[in-house]
Amino acid sequence: MKIGFFEITETEKKDYFIQNLPGYELIFIDKPLTEESLPQILDFDIISVFVNCQVTPKVITAFPRLRLITTRSTGFDNIDLPFAKSKNIMVANVPAYGSHTVAEYTFGLMLALSRKIYQAAYRVKVGEDFTLQGLRGFDLCSKTLGVIGTGKIGSNVVSIAQGFNMKVLAFDAFPNEELARTHNFLYTSLEELLKTADVVTLHTPYNEQTHHLINRQNIFLMKKGSLLINTARGQVVETEALFQALIQNHLGGAALDVLEEEKELKDEMEVLAKNTQSAEELKTILHNHILINLPQVIITPHMAFYSKEAEFAILETTEENIKSFLQGNPKNIVH
């Protein structure tokens, strides 16, 4: 049984799998798995991938013995599920890791925006400037928080909001009325949430239904001066719409742990050299660059999940996914 782990560089993670999956041939490959980076070894029975891997039909077809793809993440939009299913290949994820981790990070971003903590720290560190000019923020207490997506992360965000004495409105394609009752919040339409909330935070998965959920048709429904937080997926927000809402001073600020086209932004020189991006994609990359430099925008490198506890949960669940599959009782299968 041969298992390939892609996009895994840290020695401690490799050691974890070596220690907990004895008796199997484990191969560790630092680079993400893509069509351009197929390994020389192709006879894997199981592959473990991460967020920058692109598991397309061509990639799946390249592994003739493949039986399981297990991603070390909750999201799996980088894996072609229908094609995997057509080849009788199971796909598993890590459904529960980091739900508290991401919720806590969301409030870190929220406080950094509402109290202008980043600008204040930067001013003191770089210019030794202790003046308060331009640094007045606002309290979260008694404000209305709009939570889009009330799964594990979203429900934890609701719980933390209660500690700040915030009012909570929520939107979800599948409302959980029992959760609303026990957590004392109301479900409403997306339009009403955007019109009412002082802060909007996104916690939806990415799929066809959530692509550009926040877009040029609805972003200006948001209250003037309100804040947008995105720790979900970059493609949930239309970058052009967000850019316009910010430069027109309609939104008070945005905190983004994810960006649309973020992979291309990281590898921009390679992208430009290949000249394979569409005009819209290149425009998005440009706007991402501009967003990074706007003072009312905080951008972090897709790290909301990145805590010691969450990382251990990822490793533990991935181990469980592999073992349960090999024992004939697969867990966390997403199709």
From TrEMBL:
<dbReference type="Pfam" id="PF02826">
    <property type="entry name" value="2-Hacid_dh_C"/>
</dbReference>
<protein>
    <recommendedName>
        <fullName>D-isomer specific 2-hydroxyacid dehydrogenase NAD-binding protein</fullName>
    </recommendedName>
</protein>
<dbReference type="GO" id="GO:0006564">
    <property type="term" value="P:L-serine biosynthetic process"/>
</dbReference>
<dbReference type="Pfam" id="PF00389">
    <property type="entry name" value="2-Hacid_dh"/>
</dbReference>
<dbReference type="InterPro" id="IPR036291">
    <property type="entry name" value="NAD(P)-bd_dom_sf"/>
</dbReference>
<dbReference type="InterPro" id="IPR058205">
    <property type="entry name" value="D-LDH-like"/>
</dbReference>
<keyword id="KW-0520">NAD</keyword>
<dbReference type="InterPro" id="IPR029753">
    <property type="entry name" value="D-isomer_DH_CS"/>
</dbReference>
<keyword id="KW-0175">Coiled coil</keyword>
<keyword id="KW-0560">Oxidoreductase</keyword>
<dbReference type="InterPro" id="IPR006140">
    <property type="entry name" value="D-isomer_DH_NAD-bd"/>
</dbReference>
<dbReference type="InterPro" id="IPR029752">
    <property type="entry name" value="D-isomer_DH_CS1"/>
</dbReference>
<dbReference type="GO" id="GO:0051287">
    <property type="term" value="F:NAD binding"/>
</dbReference>
<dbReference type="GO" id="GO:0008720">
    <property type="term" value="F:D-lactate dehydrogenase (NAD+) activity"/>
</dbReference>
<dbReference type="GO" id="GO:0047545">
    <property type="term" value="F:(S)-2-hydroxyglutarate dehydrogenase activity"/>
</dbReference>
<comment type="similarity">
    <text>Belongs to the D-isomer specific 2-hydroxyacid dehydrogenase family.</text>
</comment>
<dbReference type="GO" id="GO:0004617">
    <property type="term" value="F:phosphoglycerate dehydrogenase activity"/>
</dbReference>
<feature type="coiled-coil region">
    <location>
        <begin position="255"/>
        <end position="282"/>
    </location>
</feature>
<dbReference type="InterPro" id="IPR006139">
    <property type="entry name" value="D-isomer_2_OHA_DH_cat_dom"/>
</dbReference>
<feature type="domain" description="D-isomer specific 2-hydroxyacid dehydrogenase NAD-binding">
    <location>
        <begin position="107"/>
        <end position="304"/>
    </location>
</feature>
<feature type="domain" description="D-isomer specific 2-hydroxyacid dehydrogenase catalytic">
    <location>
        <begin position="14"/>
        <end position="334"/>
    </location>
</feature>
